[in-house]
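Archive entry. Fields below.
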Amino acid sequence: MKITKKIISKIEGEATLKLHKKDKIIEFAEIEFWQYRGMEEFLKNRHYLDACVINPRVCGICGHSHLIATAKAIENALDVKITKKAEILREITLGLEIIQNHIKWFYLTLYPSVKQKDFFKALEFAKDIAKIIALIAGQFPHNSYAIPGGVTCDLTNLEIIKIKNFLYEMFERYQKIMSVDGKSEDLEELFEDIPKDIGRGLNRFLVLGDNLYFSSNGDFKFIREEKSTSLNKNVLYKDKFYEVGPLARNLNNPLVSSIYKKHKDSVYTRIFARLYEVNLIFEYLLKRIDEIEINEKNYIKPTQKNAKGYGVIEAPRGSLIHEIEIEDEKIKRYNIIVPTQFNLSNGNKLNPSPAQAALMNEDEKYADFIFKCFDICAICVSH
Amino acid sequence: MHSKPKVLWIDAVSCYGCSHSFYNYPQIKEILNKIDLIYHPLLPTKEFEIKSSDILIIEGAIKSNFLRLGFDLIDLIAKLIKLSRKVILIGTCSVYGGMFGEGILFNKEDKGKFYKCKDKIISIPGCPPHPEWIAYAIEMVLNDKKILLDSENRPKEIYSYTSHMGCVRNEYFEWKVDAKNFGEKEGCLFYEQGCQGPYTHSSCNKILWNEVNSKPRAGTPCFGCTEKTFPRKDLFKTETFMGIPANIPLGVSKRAYLTLAGVAKSLTNERLNKRLIDEDN
Amino acid sequence: MSKEEKKLEIMKTALNLFAKKGFYNTTIADIAREMGMSVGNMYNYFPSKESLAKELLIYTSKLFGEELKKINEMDISTKEKIKKIVELYFKKAKEEPELVDYFMRVYLSNKEIFSNGCEGMLCVSSFVTEIMIFFEEGVRKKELKNQDFFAAFGLFMGYLGGLVFLYREGILGKDIEEYIEVVSENIYNALKA
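PREDICTED_STRUCTURE:
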């Protein structure tokens, strides 16, 4: 048996992959993260509102999800209800963050691990998606417009009209990447020289958030973090590893489900679900935007000062958890559990995490590709 | 034919927000086509090697015991700076340290570990910096144009502005009408919500974000993210001493500012004291 | 005598009359008579009795403002500054009682006279600005408690005004200057950090 160690970069940071191989076949894979930024410590003793500025900086590509999870955690702690309008606006900006993430991941991360491909159309697309977020939230990346109690903006119908037309335009443009009936030339091109059925995971799926059109199938109470060999913490649900993310949360869609029946939880199904999710988010957002009552309040000021709370959402890569303890308006404890921790926990050979399972028994030449199809956010792990 | 200038973009302790901000530059393709991007932490490039570069771009703060691509981060940065002709520090982390560590040029208020390399450094602070600022720095260096820099090596064409300039809530600031709540069109965010606009060096409200908006326009206070003090504590609060702002707008004496503010507060601008969009006639 | 000096002369005369008889019981003719001027000539200096009252207020505020500025710029503790301000106020009340009387009996009692052009801080801004600076710096130096401006302002000025009122009514048992020490101490104790 041979063990090779490789640093995988361009995954919003880096991870170390140790492959245990026998005749080029991967017998086991160890996944390690060696960066740590200490963000939870940085939050301690600050006013809880500061978390709305600090936490987006967990990540440049999915920082908005961290903002929404922060606002939700504090609202849960302080027992604050937000208006329907504020809730819809958050759905739009979070949904759009997921979309820009998927398109960047597909063309900037995944494709280069297989072949060269023009990525400027992806940047162009992501830039326009970011513009719609900015119309509501002020800017992208790193806005703080979602605060406990609602949102800071106060839109007029001019922006609503612009956002809606923009959403239609982008939905239309997306059809060239993947159509609503699941056709995608770029996806098929990616798989020209790669088998579709490799990289099968644990076939165990978890959805904890119920934002957008997703429905949860579990309760965050059963989540447990445990020490790992590197600076990452393993995340278990009822003492087992689970796969989170677009495949997990779209299995009840007929088209995704038919692909799943054919290819199981392979790389192809995982990538298909991610690309197809974009269409479903566009459809959902276009429905929700019509429900906005322009005269409804944007913000209700919280009154309570002490409590514990949590916020769970479906972020680009899966279930994201923020937990907070507030004492006299100050943060006493903060804990963040990110989707990549679920998918890339470092288990053992008998009890591997989804990504480890996906790598096992596959040819080492596909390792990079299989690994990256989980859409890893290393920087989120090193929060 | 001359070969394209070599640009090496290295990530220190960051969140990649600077890179993702730069992706929003509408003519990013034109810039990337002009250069030979020998490494970038996210964009497709060749494998990383310690190599000489015409422009070294550093994103993120430095701290000890931090590994980057298998190297000790501070050693790696030292080598890369030595091998570069010009260095562009992008982001508040890389210039001042921000929330993740020490900056390259400064460590918050103090001189940083690489202050001695000041002559070849250009600072583009911001969390994240505006894509146009990053593009500006790259273009100016590529074209060998002279950049007027301030004492912290920030280009004056960008950082001589304050983020207050161009804010749509300016009239409320002039007439001292404070925003009473978040989520409202009316009122200035300077007095109650902690807006740092009048003393933050940046052109956010002049050139706008994503070409359409800015934080204060979306009702979010400016957090002073381009400054060495970012992120200060109590980001949504204006520090006051006996109800008087502890920091007053750049360039004005406290006495002059308080006199003007008192006069403005004494006179009422009827229009600004009611809802901007009224349901009545 | 220059026009400005003459104007000042008229203001001083008016100040005395307003302070003594009140604003409404004093006519332009009264002021002119006291000055030995014709009523017509008076109007060359002040277009109305209201404008005279307004300028007087600005003048008084400036006078106090300039004195306060000197105290603000002194390199002494906030506690010592409080004593200096109390001293200034009580001494003025004794030496130039008409100034204080004017402030209390005309400005504070007849706000309607000042409703046009003297709203809010407009005519008293030199004085109020210096008080703000005094408070702001006291908190900045961590010598005063950080609190609402008006809560502190009211405590300080209301207290001084009350004492001067008692003094001018002749109720105060001792000379007002004998109260400087204890009043300063009380103010400091109430406002200190």
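CURATOR_NOTE: Residues 6-155 of chain B form a domain with the Rossmann fold fold (CATH 3.40.50.700).
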